[in-house]
Specification:
Elements: E1 9-13, H1 17-29, E2 33-37, H2 43-50, E3 54-58, H3 66-76, E4 81-86, H4 91-99, E5 104-107, H5 112-125, H6 132-150, H7 155-162, H8 166-173, H9 181-190
Parallel strand pairs: 1-2, 1-3, 3-4, 4-5
């Protein structure tokens, strides 16, 4: 039975047509909606109206470099995920892009599996689950958070009740880490719930 994946929109910005075509084919095959732009001056307007979840942005482009484009993107949208893409990585541009909240910094030529891994991580961070397993982690995380808030418990109090670390509990709630059955059991007991209640509507 096919899973209904959310339509995730990706904008790729690079002055090299061959790279744009290759990445568009790769990402569309993975089920993403993709648009490409070779002119960095059009990015700001495109972001304003495009409803994108992610931008893959080349760093070295004529007319406008990637850091300047990223500054303009941030004026329009402070939340959109941006992955920087460069054939000339250096510490200065890495630091500048991280300061502007880029979620990752990838070196060209890139390894396809590595790139997919970065995309998967970005999607999880933004709550855009891609697989049934990730959707399950998200459902569990959301349900635990709601239960905890209903009982007015902080993560620190939950950690004390369960014996699990604050950071693990936080990762489970954000669906960045999958909880073991024993962790789920401890969480359920601490919330006065049954373990199956933590699966939400899944």
């Amino acid at each position: 039975m096919p899973v209904n994946l959310p339509a995730i929109r990706i904008l790729i910005v690079d002055d090299e047509r061959a790279i744009l075509d290759y990445m568009q084919t790769l990402l569309e095959r993975d089920g993403y909606q993709v648009k490409t732009l070779s002119d960095p001056l059009q990015v700001e307007e495109e972001v304003r109206h495009g409803g994108y979840h992610l931008i893959v942005l080349d760093l070295m482009m004529p007319r406008l470099d990637g850091i300047e484009v990223l500054k303009r993107i941030r004026k329009v949208d402070s939340d959109i995920a941006v992955v920087i893409f460069t054939g000339y990585p250096n510490l200065e541009t890495a630091v500048a892009s991280m300061k502007l909240d880029a979620v990752d910094y990838i070196k060209k030529p890139f390894n396809v599996d590595e790139f997919r891994e970065v995309l998967g991580r970005v999607m999880r961070k933004k709550g855009l689950a891609r697989t049934p397993e990730e959707q399950l982690h998200k459902a569990i995380g959301d349900t635990i958070r709601n239960f905890r808030k209903d009982k007015n418990l902080t993560l620190k109090q939950m950690a004390r009740r369960t014996g699990l670390s604050v950071s693990l509990l936080s990762q489970i709630e954000r669906a960045e880490s999958s909880a073991s059955i024993s962790s789920l059991y401890k969480i359920a007991v601490s919330l006065d719930a049954r373990i199956q209640d933590l699966f939400g509507e899944f």
